[in-house]
Write the structure tokens for this entry.
Amino acid sequence: MKSSYREALRAGIRDAMLRDERVFLMGEDVGSYGGSFAVSLGLLEEFGPQRIRDTPLSESGFVGAGIGAALAGMRPIVEIMTVNFSLLALDQIVNNAASLLHMSGGQFNVPLVIRMTTGAGRQLGAQHSHSLEGWFAHIPGLRILAPATLADARGMLWTALQDPDPVLIFEHGSLYNVAGELDDDAGAVDIDTAAVRRPGADVSLITYGGTLPPVLDAAGQLAADGIDAEVLDLRTLRPLDEAAILASVRRTHRAVVVDEGWRSGSISAEISARITENAFYDLDAPVGRVCSAEVPIPYSKHLELAALPSVDRITAAARQAVSAGG
Amino acid sequence: MTGPLDPPARALDPAHGRHLLLQMLRVRRLEEKCVELYSAAKIRGFLHVYIGEEAVAAGVLETLAPDDAVLATYREHGHALLRGVPAGAILAEMYGYVEGCCRGRGGSMHLFDAATRFYGGNAIVAGGLPLAVGMALADKMSGRSRATVCFFGEGAVAEGEFHESLNLAALWQLPVLFCCENNLYAMGTALGRSESQTDMALKAAGYEVAAWAVDGMDVLAVEDAARRAVEAVRSGGGPHFLELRTYRFRAHSMFDPERYRDKAEVARWLERDPITLLRTSMEAAGQLSAQEWDQLEAEADAEVAAAVEFAEAGTLERVEDLTRFVYSERGADGGAAATGRSGP
């Protein structure tokens, strides 16, 4: 069937609400407004205001309430409008959700799912455009997901809700309108493994989330020039599927990491380090990286585009990797 | 309504009075021992004792049922003990031993106990309030009539999470009791130096939360107010707020030279020691003999002695298990959590 990424997310939420009465959705404008990105449009009418629960602008309050509800037996889905707003809830996410199980010596797990929009590309300026999922991936106790495909948008949520621990799902804003074919029986998918989206022999392009489409475009262009790029979609940023990363690098002997986060201290740095720690002697070229410029994302279209990983920058980095060394 | 409640009209049952005295004494003696053990380097990290404030926990927790939930702060030894966490498990936790109530992962500031629905032990000021709101939300959505009780200091009132939480609780009419332990100092900052409005109950009332101010040194007044508030909360009366006016007799922590308050002020408050207040009033009423008092002391001392013995015999978690409990441990089928016990 035809589906957009947005519709796939909605189908996932609806499915979870129908299957488990402990599940409810809570966040700013998820109900009457229909969701700031229209993901939850129509769910209020179907499930009512108790389970599609509009909140005040109180990120720390309602994220913390989600943690409390999870502690007390519910399976909340908390929506944060954008990743920048999640900074108002960092105390609850880091000091409580990620820490309670350990601090309590294994007594209190937090089966909570938090969804939020991430990323740039829509001229929304510095306070609505950042990619901080790599930052969250730094935190032990959290699981970090980045669905890049319709199937993952549809299927990651249910699996995340079965996880006994907190899961953060990052939905790149540029993906909501992406449309395509989704299997009629699409359902839950695993949230442990990376996926090879395009097999190749010459270079591994490692990415996730919103940069998967430009990376696939880049791989297509490279193919026209006789460079056979493998595209690895990480899908889960914590825990990283290190085995899949290393296996790909060992096949291609070259790697370029594409990450819309800033380069310094980023998830791309972590991936690069793991490759050099574990597969250094398999490499025929230094690990390359394509990241966002180290600048708060600007409004002006040409500046914003210049700050972000582009197909041209990805192909250039891949060509450099292939031309380097043996 | 806001403001002071009328004092309880009923006469004190002597047996109940002795029970409350014992509860406060148990906390006092355990914490006096904690200070001693800290000085002996048996306990490390931060240690914040509740000495002087015992009437608050004793009075409020007396009114709860086993299926109610309790959240507290980093000054929570007394709340844990009176909620039913064994003194030995509390002390072993401070020793950092696996026999502690959190296997030594939490320490003094992070006591937790699933069996008694004691949810910490939160060392971020106001960090527990949103959790309490969520737990009460879960109860309301599930049709359960039980209360969630959240303790916090008056310092928390300056945090955004306080305001977000009171608003949410009132907006959704949740079964939660907020207990503000106003001991007049946020660490070393006096209330008047940190709040433009120093009437805590008035602030709560601004969110349409029923709020009462209570003499937190009078355990009977605390118990009476808490009983009324908890009953209202349980029966669908929405969130309630108690400002419990109390005082910390000891330093904020073991590192506090107490430069911010004068000794005369402390001395004035010591005259209102909650244990002495109840003891002398019961003695004056002929409700407590010298022998009965001695028995209470002996009982509290024996519990502490047994707790020390238990903690001293504790063992260390294996270092190989360092990274356990970061994520839930899955059952053999890869399914439900084998460790975490969160749930209704």
Summary: The longest strand of chain A covers residues 255-262.
